[in-house]
Design a protein that fits this description.
33% of the residues lie in helices and 20% in strands. By secondary structure, the protein is an alpha/beta fold. The protein has a nine-stranded mixed sheet. It starts with 8 loop residues before the first strand and ends in a 5-residue tail after the last helix.
Length: 413
């Protein structure tokens, strides 16, 4: 990381659409509401987290670091499909939310480790194919952000797997990038332990892992540790999906050298017009970010082929996201297609999937943004503003319609 003085300011460029509405979003949405009187869709998920517990039952877990991992079960209700778009999260404008129009929480249960194991075993043995999907969120996500986002992905993808979310301590603030990044390092042992437990459980058939942006860092580190410890990634981990990873390409080459041999099928979602990753590249020493490479040029083309990584290029896919950083999550067609493949037991990394044709078909239309304007904040990289770099970043930011200098001097999202 470039050197900086003690007075350096960490400024996060978050998604413009999400930031415009997060100030008016209520807190405490995880407080359970009464059973809906209208038909709704539901997702029951298990939670493993390194976050500290909150005394507020409507928040459950804070953005601070817990001394030991915690576990929970949460049931989320989503309004009828007739009143919501695929890819959208309808946050309540006030509490309690209305199940007919909003995402609401129906049940929350704190679990001990043994209770979590018992509940997981019941869920996975009842699941056809005994499949599990593990989701790792990105930067700037409160706990409720991650919960509702994962529920939306599980429902909209129609994936048939037990949903397990690993959530690490993010303060949910655009000013906390450094803290969030260190929290991923703090959490990599816990994520490895979770993946080890799932892999060794005889009731589990196969595991898919989905990570977004900063969540890719902790995911790759956990898989790397597993490979070092056991000589390979456990073969039950069949598919790993890396969406818009804000990871140094050189560091990734070291990580994947240990993960790839005898490892899982890996799918990489990239977009060369990811403006957030373009800024991140400048911050991190002008080294390309993994999520923004062109997989058709060398040396990436050869290296990806050698590591048997399938890359899905979303560059031509239109998006409502001004930074083009959340295309994977914001495209209903892509989310549904991946869910269909996983549900049918076919690897999403199979070169015959035909994603290129499907993406070409949807690229002509505007994709819905994951979360509404008051919705889920997807991960975006930081900008360091100090006397040595301020001018360069302002110049680049002007291309994004954002004046970093003005924002850094007092404007808040």
């Amino acid at each position: 990381m470039p050197s900086m003085n003690a007075a350096a300011i960490f400024l996060i460029m978050a998604l413009a659409t999400a930031l415009s509405g997060c100030g008016g979003r209520p807190e405490g949405v995880l407080l359970p509401v009464a059973e809906p009187t209208v038909p709704t869709s539901r997702v029951d998920m298990l939670i493993a987290t390194t976050r500290a517990k909150s005394p507020d039952p409507g928040i459950m877990f804070t953005g601070e670091r817990g001394m030991t991992p915690s576990f929970a079960e949460i049931t989320v209700s989503m309004p009828p499909d007739s009143v919501r778009k695929v890819g959208d999260v309808q946050w309540p404008s006030q509490l309690p939310g209305n199940p007919a129009t909003d995402f609401v929480t129906l049940k929350t249960t704190d679990l001990s480790l043994e209770q979590a194991k018992s509940r997981f075993n019941k869920m996975v043995t009842a699941m056809p194919g005994r499949r599990v999907i593990v989701f790792i969120h990105g930067f700037n996500n409160r706990f409720d952000d991650a919960v509702y986002r994962f529920a939306q992905i599980v429902h909209d993808s129609q994936v048939k797997a037990v949903p397990v979310m690993f959530t690490w301590p993010s303060r949910g603030s655009v000013w906390a990038y450094g803290y969030d990044r260190e929290s991923t390092n703090y959490s990599r042992d816990a994520l490895e332990n979770l993946l080890q437990f799932l892999s060794r459980d005889p009731s589990v058939g196969e595991i898919s892992v989905l990570a977004h942006s900063m969540g890719n860092w902790v995911t790759l580190e956990a898989l790397r540790q597993m490979a070092i410890r056991d000589g390979r990634v456990n073969p039950k981990i069949k598919a790993v999906m890396l969406a818009a990873p804000d990871v140094d390409i050189n560091v990734f080459s070291r990580q994947i050298a240990l993960i790839a041999p005898k490892g899982p099928n890996i799918t990489l979602f990239v977009s060369q017009d990811d403006r957030a990753l373009a800024v991140s590249r400048r911050v991190w020493g002008d080294i390309p970010r993994l999520g923004a490479i062109d997989p058709t040029v060398e040396p990436y083309k050869t290296e990806l082929a050698q590591d048997k990584i399938t890359t899905i290029d979303l560059t031509k896919l239109n998006s409502d996201d001004r930074l083009n950083h959340g295309k994977f999550a914001s495209s209903p067609e892509v989310v549904q297609l991946i869910g269909t493949r996983l549900a049918s037991g076919q690897s999403v990394t199979d070169s015959r999937v035909g994603l290129g044709d499907r993406i070409a078909g949807v690229a002509t239309g505007a994709a819905a943004t994951v979360g509404s304007a008051a919705g889920l904040v997807l991960s975006a990289p930081l900008v360091i503003v100090d006397p040595n770099t301020r001018a360069n970043f302002n110049e680049h930011a002007s291309q994004l319609g954002t004046n970093i200098g003005d924002t850094a001097t007092g404007a808040t999202p």
